[in-house]
Amino acid sequence: MLIAILLVLAYLIGSIPSAVWVSKWVFGLDIREHGSGNAGATNCFRILGSKAGSAVMLMDMLKGFLAVKLVILSGLPHYWEAYRNLEVFLGLASVLGHIFPIWAEFRGGKGIATLFGMILSIQPAVAVSLVAVFFCMLYLTRYVSLSSITASIAFPVMIVFIFNAHELSYKLFAIATACLVVLTHYKNISRLINGNESKVGFFRKKKDRHQ
């Protein structure tokens, strides 16, 4: 019963619609009606600017991080496999809440920042490595979507071959994460193939800035 309550709490934490609240309360608009129509940090960066986008990203990351920490309330010893499995399920519940938030008509974002907060809470070293992959790809291409997809695919590779995680739940979670990110970015993948995906203004070359 306690585990079920914790999972529901994790989902409710993930459901906090950071992007929607910031866009409505500060800017008087619904971010879901602008840009890509996504209630996530990337769309906030594009439509509301870097300050709002950064604030939303941090809040979304915090949702995943805090949801995982609910495992402390379970009373399970941290060295038990059940403890580590519960961490994964709590994190996934928060990501599910972000994608389908009960507080925002079940119209949320893609869950990347919340997913990262979850990974940061469970495997900090892996999270830092994924950030490096993300920003390397962002520097090379300036596509946030492609950077997110690349980092997600790198996740199971790192878990299995670099960090040698022994827990089956971690391995399955990493593989599922890569699949989930690719699936939630199918529209972006289509735009990338067609050459009309939007680029961010970060890392622009000097000649591009003057055009």
Shape: globular
Helical fraction: over 70%
Oligomeric nature of the chains? single chain
Q: What profile does the largest beta sheet have?
A: none
SSE pattern: HHHHHHHHHHH
Backbone structural class = mainly alpha
Q: How many domains is the backbone divided into?
A: 2
Number of strand segments: 0
* Strand portion: under 5%
Rounded mean pLDDT score: 89
- The N- to C-terminal Cα distance equals 60 Å
Tally of separate helices: 11
Description of the molecule:
Its main location: membrane. The protein has 211 residues and is an all-alpha fold. It has two domains: 1-122, no CATH class; 123-203, no CATH class. The protein has helices at 2-14, 18-27, 41-48, 50-69, 81-99, 112-122, 124-141, 144-162, 168-184, 186-194, 206-209. Helix 1 packs parallel to helix 5 (81-99), helix 4 packs antiparallel against helix 5 (81-99) and helix 5 runs antiparallel to helix 6. The protein is globular. 43% of the residues are buried.
In short:
The protein is an all-alpha fold.
List the helices and strands and how they pair.
Blueprint: H1 2-14, H2 18-27, H3 41-48, H4 50-69, H5 81-99, H6 112-122, H7 124-141, H8 144-162, H9 168-184, H10 186-194, H11 206-209
Helix pairs in contact: 1-4, 1-5, 2-4, 3-4, 4-5, 4-6, 5-6, 6-7, 7-8, 8-9
